[in-house]
Here is the input.
Amino acid sequence: MKTLRLIPAIALAGLLFSYTAIAQNYQAAIDNAYSKYKDLKEGANADYIKELANVDPDIYGIAIVTTDGKVYSKGDLSSRVSIQSISKVFTLAKILEEQGPQAIMDKIGVDATGLRFNSIVAIELQKGKEINPLVNPGAIAAVSLINGADSAAKWRNIQQVHNEFAGSTLLVNGPVYVSEAGDNLRNQAIAHLLLAYGRMYFDPVQATDVYTKQCALNVNAKDLAVMAATLANGGTNPVTKKKVVSPETAAYTMSVMETAGLYDNAGQWLFKTGVPAKSGVGGGIIAAVPGKFGIAVISPPLDAAGNSVKAQRTIEAIIAELKANPNLVMPK
Ligand code: GLN
Here is the structure.
């Protein structure tokens, strides 16, 4: 009888022990990567958007949010940077949710361009087709496609989905928006070229403007980690518990992140980590480990492809230490 009563107690102790061990693993992996890379000085802030050159290059924050809503972090969690291209992920998710995957396949495309994120040649090579939603042409086309009768309605839709993924109200970084909006002739050219090919679904000037505003949403590392964790958790925010998109939408979104999340370096990234990820020229990178956790790192200095140097190294190191590469399977 006594032994019978002991069994649940032992099981509970075992569960608690394994939970504590996992929690320690997450924190230790973050701490180790932080000490390893905190003094790394490679790369440079983006400066083609003038305001980004003024951002403190020493901001360095790491956060993990698990699919059961636990948060682990280290470094600068209070500084916010503009989300930039990471926003492309959430606008894509909203279109998938509202219009289905066929709309994305038919009207934008899902193949990697293999070229720079703001490549005009990429559009020309494909005559406006197969421009995936995580590089500028596909992302501006996505803003033109998202539900909303006018640019204010499109913007509200975009803002809402970002807030729901983050579980908080994200604000626009005014100086970054003004700085990019006054100087984005290249993105305007991209939008007009797509229009010429019949692949722009709204006024190109207004679509580019809403796209620029979306890129200027301000986030810290924890906001980004919650956003990534919502994808990793099948589209339901693990902190607020709100269903933001369906599991199918989350899966389609993560597939495009695997293909093109780090632009022309997406193949190298996937080879090293196996995880869907997305970078932005503000210095953030998110990665989602399906079913397990979302991770985000902010560090503004970028490499030649426009990806944060320190964020890439940090996430790579943490994924390796946690053996979290989804393709890494121990034989039975
Ligand atoms: N707003 C930026 C642009 O359009 C986003 C680019 C990025 O983060 N790669 O150039």
